[in-house]
Design a protein that fits this description.
By secondary structure, the chain is an all-alpha fold. Helices cover 75% and strands 0% of the residues.
Length: 313
């Protein structure tokens, strides 16, 4: 009992939890976070709402991939499909949120005349964003969305729901037995890119970014059960993902801007200058990536990963 006479708070996750029940607890937490940011995503006054709601969705989708063997295939398919639909609607807005902020920052470093010329381009993108938000809000208002939330909430609250019957009692199913294997598998999927780096194209780097993201989400979700070295290791993972995320942002940005047609000469010149600046940044990111990849593969970083799992033994 604690010194103040109160019972110590029971940890949300326990090493002895069955993987499906640990997943249920984690799904419930992320579902609450997703619903918390719905109102802000509807209004669009703070772009962070869409970002945070999207992160919660991504974590849940990642968790279904990680724990697929511990739920019925129909359960995984049903809820993964629903989460993917919402995530796509949010992603369409998030891409423009980030691009518009990036363009505004670029314009702020230019002359007043250049800022005035860039303003219609930003307004055009903002109109596109408004159209996408209207589609998002229509999704939020749909009966299907509300039904999905009710069903998913039931999955989160009812132990055993959506899980297959275990055929053998000794089959590995507790977190302490299964999680190390799953994390090692995700780690292997990242390290396997050694054979294609550093001569990787943008498509390959994007695929590596996805693998880093899957590793990061798994670590973050189960971090309370891992040893303290996991915090250091997670910082290295975040550093890699941030670089690769910016590389992907630039690919999206330049794709959007290159698709703009029939612009007046002054606006076209500004768009070309913006694209050129982002391509220069891309070259710098490539250099940073090589440095961070070396740090990530260092013995110290790899030891942090291994040591973080020892507490689950």
């Amino acid at each position: 009992m604690a010194k103040d006479g109160k019972k110590p708070k029971r940890p949300e996750l326990l090493p002895e939890d069955p993987m499906a029940e640990a997943g249920r607890k984690l799904f419930a937490r992320q579902l609450r976070r997703m619903k918390w940011h719905e109102a802000g995503s509807r209004a669009g006054e703070d772009i962070e709402s869409v970002h945070q709601m999207r992160v919660a969705l991504r974590r849940m989708r990642s968790l279904f991939k990680l724990l697929a063997a511990h739920y019925r295939p129909k359960t995984v398919a049903k809820y993964s499909k629903g989460l993917r639909r919402i995530a796509r609607a949010l992603g369409a807005i998030r891409d423009l949120d980030v691009l518009i902020v990036d363009l505004q920052d670029f314009a702020a470093t230019s002359s007043a005349a250049s800022q005035a010329a860039m303003s219609p381009v930003i307004e055009m993108l903002d109109e596109c964003r408004s159209e996408r938000r209207a589609r998002l809000n229509a999704l939020f208002d749909s009966k299907g969305y509300r039904r999905f939330l009710r069903d998913f909430n039931r999955l989160c609250k009812k132990p055993g729901r959506g899980t297959p019957k275990r055929q053998r009692p000794e089959a590995p199913h507790q977190v302490r037995h299964v999680l190390p294997l799953l994390l090692h598998e995700r780690m292997a999927r990242v390290k396997a890119y050694d054979v294609v780096l550093p001569a990787a194209d943008d498509e390959t780097l994007h695929a590596l970014r996805v693998e880093f993201k899957q590793l990061r989400y798994a670590l973050e979700l189960f971090l309370p059960l891992l040893g303290s070295p996991a915090v250091r290791f997670l910082q290295r993972v975040k550093a890699m993902q941030e670089i690769l995320g910016r590389v992907q942002d630039i690919a999206v940005f330049t794709g959007y801007m290159s698709a703009l047609a029939d612009l007046p000469p002054q606006q076209q010149a500004l768009v070309e200058a913006y694209v050129a600046m982002r391509n220069q940044e891309l070259a710098q990111l490539r250099e940073r990536f090589d440095e961070e990849w070396t740090r990530f593969n260092s013995r110290a970083t790899q030891r942090d990963f291994s040591d973080s799992l020892l507490v689950l033994r």
